[in-house]
Amino acid sequence: SDILAAFDQAVDDGVDVISLSVGASYAPPYDSDSIAIGAFAAARKGIVVSCSAGNSGPGAYTATNIAPWILTMGASTVDRDFPADVVLGDGSVHAGVSLYGGDGRPEGELLPLVYSAYCGSRYCYSGYLDPAKVKGKIVLCDRCGNARVEKGASVKLAGGIGMIMANTDLEGNELLADAHLIPATMVGATEGDKIRAYIESAASPTATIQFRGTVIGEGTSPAPKVASFSSRGPNRVTPEILKPDVIAPGVNILAGWTGAAAPSDLEIDPRRVTFNIISGNNLTIFTSSVKKFAIG
């Protein structure tokens, strides 16, 4: 009812475009989908309605907001990156990304490296890591299971001083920059496999993380490219109508951020910022004909 009321209010306000980044976990039939119903009423008034396809990719039939009268948006990468590369004790370099800018960065110093699967929790669940095996070390954690930044908090709680988060095969090699609580970086599945192999083979594995700030155009091609998390078609309700319709920037996007929440969005994070880098289904419209724009 709130969504329908918001559509009605936007129509009454005389907007030209409604952008809605809300959706169900699956695509319901149009006549029982409040967003599709509200968008249909707006479209009859000549209003363009664009909605996010969702963040449930890369599986098929995961796109939502797929009614024919909705402009369904997928998420894409951009040519901006935040490199934070892993350098192992054998000299090999493995590309990663991070937004961490705090104290305690290794700055080239090689530190002991361990794999979290041998320390109590492959996914670095809070309270499950053994401090005796983690303290004073950089910890390789596998992605999934809990929030990405939460893994670093778990490592910190156990006495670790750095984290490398590795994608599993499900996420592949796409990288998302996070405002980690400790010196940390994310690497792709391929690089993660190489780091695990090094840990297995080295008598005393070591690593450091090289934080390189913001980079434009370097190592980010091709861009734009569909984000791995962006929901895919085909259209579950009307297969003959292709969805999503278009993609727009949605990976590592610079955006204004509320002071009511931490950049990691975790309650244990005391930091507050006015801007943040976030990822998801986004939409940017540049046109001189739009007089009013409603965002939901």
UniProtKB/TrEMBL annotation:
This is Subtilisin-like protease. InterPro entries: PA_dom_sf, PA_domain, Peptidase_S8/S53_dom, Peptidase_S8/S53_dom_sf, SBT. One of its GO terms (cellular component) is apoplast. Residues 112-195 form the PA domain. PROSITE patterns: SUBTILASE. Its main location: secreted. The keyword Protease applies.
